[in-house]
Amino acid sequence: MADETRVAVIGYGLAGSAFHAPFVDAVDGLRVTAVVTGDPERAATARDRHPDVVVHPSVDELWRHADDVDLVVVASPNRFHVEQATAALEVGLHVVVDKPVAATARGVRALGELAKQTGKVLTAFQNRRWDGDFLTVRKLVEDGTLGQVGRFESRFERGAKAVRSAWRASPDPADMANILYDLGTHLADQAIVLFGRPVTVYAETRAPRPEVRVAEDATILLTHEGGVRSYLRASNVTMPVTPRFAVAGGTAGYRCWGLDPQEAASRAGTPPTAEGFGVYGEDRWGTLTTPDGETVVPTVDGDYLAFYRGVRDCVRGDGPPPVAVAESIALTETIEAAIRSAASGKPVAL
């Protein structure tokens, strides 16, 4: 099809195979035509799932065939994000980069400048903006249901499991294995979407497991310009025992529990077009509290497909990128500040 955007996915591990490729193929006008992986088993899976896909054993091989694709999804380990996004832009391709885009805001700015020079789209994969519970919170904040919000609490906490990839336990800063770059990036991004770039950042981190020499548990406090304080918890070593979201305003508050079902469904191989994908059962709906009592609030359906619909439209010139470069810069500045704060034990002003 002449108006079809041909997409190459770099990396076909969990991110590439579960959270990118199926969503690309599910959006009308996008199609996975190439995958980069040196793993024979993953290569076979890619060929089975994507008819006529070309599997390249290396990114160098992909660049030699750059004319055969229009857009690259960088879903490789974190340390390769900047290098591969840069190379893709230099050969004239649009780019989606899985979070974190880069370890530093300077790195994100450099990519943004290159995208501007080449006239290509650059956007970060922040799919948690389309979690159903977050969409619900955003609606309640923006339509004034909660009044003047003073406190925003958000948590991604998971019980301890074996680390699935060696680089995720690496203390090398280049690997960006610190939980602040992982779950912390999702949490901070959501807070910034709601209340803007923080003016101060305070963070504490822990690395409680001796076999994992990098922070797996973090508490982050953001103070936003309007006075809202965001209390964020990210952990791969603590079971979730508190609400996913708790938002308190002067006249109303909202809380809900559990994680958006799209992640578990994607991990299980459920296609995003399946009936009920992203739908929360009534037993998972949140609660609005006012002086008059409590009211159950239906949770908005999650919609990870919205990200790639936005990518398609942006590439066609029909809309803005789903995540702007300026937003990725603000987010990375926040994560950098959190890392400095955790090291010094003091708040960091932005």
UniProtKB/TrEMBL annotation:
Which controlled-vocabulary keywords does the entry list?
Oxidoreductase
Q: Which GO terms describe its molecular function?
A: inositol 2-dehydrogenase (NAD+) activity; nucleotide binding
Q: Which InterPro entries match?
A: Gfo/Idh/MocA-like_OxRdtase_C (IPR004104), Gfo/Idh/MocA-like_OxRdtase_N (IPR000683), Gfo/Idh/MocA_oxidoreduct (IPR051317), NAD(P)-bd_dom_sf (IPR036291)
Q: What is its EC number?
A: 1.1.1.18
Name the coiled-coil region(s): none
Which Pfam families does the record match to this protein?
GFO_IDH_MocA (PF01408), GFO_IDH_MocA_C (PF02894)
| Gene3D superfamilies to which the protein is assigned, alphabetical | Dihydrodipicolinate Reductase, domain 2 (3.30.360.10), NAD(P)-binding Rossmann-like Domain (3.40.50.720)
Q: Which residues form the Gfo/Idh/MocA-like oxidoreductase N-terminal domain?
A: 6-123
Give the family, as the similarity comment puts it: Belongs to the Gfo/Idh/MocA family.
Record protein name field:
Myo-inositol 2-dehydrogenase
